[in-house]
Known about the structure:
The structure is a single chain. By secondary structure, the chain is an alpha/beta fold. It folds into three domains: 217 residues, 3-Layer(aba) Sandwich (Rossmann fold), CATH 3.40.50.1100; 90 residues, Rossmann fold (3-Layer(aba) Sandwich); 79 residues, ACT domain (Alpha-Beta Plaits), CATH 3.30.70. 45% of the residues lie in helices and 19% in strands. It contains 16 helices and 14 strands. Strand 3, helix 5 and strand 4 form a beta-alpha-beta unit. The longest helix has 17 residues. The protein is elongated and about 80 Å long.
Amino acid sequence: MLDLADLDRARKRLEGAVYESPCPYSQTLSELSGTRCFVKLENLQMTGSFKERGAANLLLQLDAAERARGVVAASAGNHGLAIAFHASRLGIPAVIVMPESAPLIKVTSARRYGAEVILHGANYDEAYGRARQVQAERGLVFVHPFDDERVIAGQGTLGLELLVQRPEMDAVLVPVGGGGLAAGVALAVKSHRPEVRVIGVQAETLPAMKIALEAHERVTLPPASTIADGIAVRQVGELTLALARRHVDQVVTVSEEELANAILLLLEIEKTVVEGAGAAPLAALLNRPLGLAGLNVVLVLSGGNIDVTVISRIIEHGLVKDGRLVRLGVLLRDRPGALARLTTLIAAERANILHIEHDRAFSSTAIGETEVELTLETSGRTQIDALKQRLEDAGYRVEERNA
Length: 403
């Protein structure tokens, strides 16, 4: 079984190869959560995630013959990016098999780093099967994304850094997919400070580690989708499960809505771009009763590789949820100047019109009436309610629409 000495050797091996990411204090997140909150910014790694630690630690231990043969990896994205980057740096040929649904930013980045990228299957497991076929066909070295002692030891160096950066920490929240990061961090932290709580966080659509710990064995979950694609793993590793059973105190799950909100909060408050997996610790801290009030808590923001299109959808969804974006249907008399009077009332309430659709021909309204649909930018629910009241007082029929 992996031990602390393996992590210490990995840390020495990775000097100069991997960035020692900062772990600053967040005043605003502390106020929101009722804790003293620190954020470990692994999204600042060269390839945008913690995966570089395990990838580099393994690649640096390959012998000359293995380096000449090349490596193959299956990845939802970040592991593949890390392998591609460090393999290129070390002159090792690399093949990365990703699911067809892998975020475009991860696919293009892996190719930019010089790897051959194969898109195969609807999920990580199907990509994994194809990667094993490529391994057999070409005689390559397979690099597992989490169930390898060299990979886990590399991820564990993050925990060693935290012990130095935040010796006052009382708890650390870590995203969990296959379990490599949680296992490595837990081993590092618990070996030095067993009183520190290590809490794993999973997407509730794919809680493979939580179920495995409860069942005392690995289970394979049915396919499911989540915006936390970096932790969308249907079965955890044998090594990672054994380490998690020993060292991880608790595993909790978070919803898609909570993940999206956490991404938006980090973007607005910390000016930090994180992917769904990286936002999972904050989602848990804000939405689960973890008993951490007043304590020093570290959130591991594991990665920042998220498509801008996904960010755009999350921002729009968040604005609607917060009442800063609203759609209203308004019925008015079909007379000259009616639309001008409506927009004047909206302007008087200081709401901003982003889109307006004025429909006569295809509306189900009576002859002499017309329906206007407006998308408005507001300051929040109070302003929306005031605007609706003003329009209704002026004789308009108003309907707020959610879709």
